[in-house]
Amino acid sequence: MELSLTFRSWSPFVPRKLNSPSSHPPKLSIPTISPTPALPLQRTPRPTVAAAAGKKEIEGVSEELNLIASQNLDYAAARRRVRSAFIQVQQQLDHCLFKVASAGVRTEEWIERNSKGLEIFFRSWMPEPGVKTKGAVCFCHGYGDTCTFFFEGIARFIAASGYGVYAIDHPGFGLSEGLHGYIYSFDELADNVIEQYAKIKERPESRGLPFFILGQSMGGAVTLKVHLKDPQGWDGIILVAPMCKISDDVTPPEPVLKVLTFLSKVMPTAKLVPQKDLAELAFRDPRKKKMAMILYSFKFQAVYNVICYNDPVRLRTAVELLKATKEIEMQVEKVSSPLLILHGAADKVTDPLISQFLYENASSKDKTLKLYEEGYHSILEGEPDDRIFTVLNDIIAWLDARC
């Protein structure tokens, strides 16, 4: 059956042939927001940067773009250059999320420093002029990811449905500053989300709106941490394949975990966690799976998501992720906000049984769990097109009922 299972309580894609880009990547427009001035994206034309070892050539793009994509992405300046060069490539990809009809949706992106001094990348999508904004959705992306790739189509769909959408890249990921793929503290990651979205809630166009937080995979764990730290901060929570617990299929055995914990104190940024190819687990649609890249431990990425973190998990990052999921598992009864949980029933990356455990034990009086039959981990990106839009429409229906 293609129908999802619903529980309710009230108490990869093949690219079109691409032309070579100009020698200078398109310049990004970074508007400012008051009172804090925005920081411009750093852009250096045709940089000479050390290439990252082991990167595979991307089919269907020019030699120049492959050279750009082969850069070492440890630091934000390089990731920003690579993203700028690949914008047009990504917009032409043969995937339903890059074809979302969103005429009139207004987008904006900017950078601000957080209280730790790191530059944080923001992006927003607003309904077309004249359309009343029903509410605001703030996004927390998953491990290794960015809000500038697959989420672009997801955000445009939600914005075209009458909602303001806001997203940030976590420190160390995407276009935000920080060592690529490094999480020093999961609690600090959640604190940064609270800090940045507090600013969004004060923007003139969103002040007074109902605010919802949407977290996917590791972003689901961040979202739950945010809620546990600030229980009254949101009008509702949406979790997509949340990382409430790492599946036994991808969790290192106990002796390895003990070694990892010790080593994470000695060499926290080292990339020593054994890698594991999870493409078969994350993507169900064969056409989308074909373009999936190597997956490392917690999260898959796709070959054209050029600024994602695809290296083996850093030691401290791995330990922080495992520690966070254990903490969340022990506090699920404290989850009290209106709650929507969406999960592929065949997910072998984050366990759908844990989502059911969260649903059953959360103290929320308004909670809904949808398990999508045969769905894999990436129900918003890696499923057949009709399933992807079913999940998106389920999100909109849930929001509409609460705004």
From TrEMBL:
Domain of life according to the entry: Eukaryota
Annotated ranges, domain Serine aminopeptidase S33: 132-384
GO CC annotation terms, alphabetical: membrane
Region: Disordered, residue numbers: 16-40
Gene Ontology MF: a single term: lipase activity
Protein name: Alpha/beta-Hydrolases superfamily protein isoform 1
Gene3D superfamilies noted in UniProt: alpha/beta hydrolase (3.40.50.1820)
InterPro entries in the cross-refs: AB_hydrolase_1, AB_hydrolase_fold, Hydrolase_4, MAG_DAG_Lipase
One Pfam family from the record: Hydrolase_4
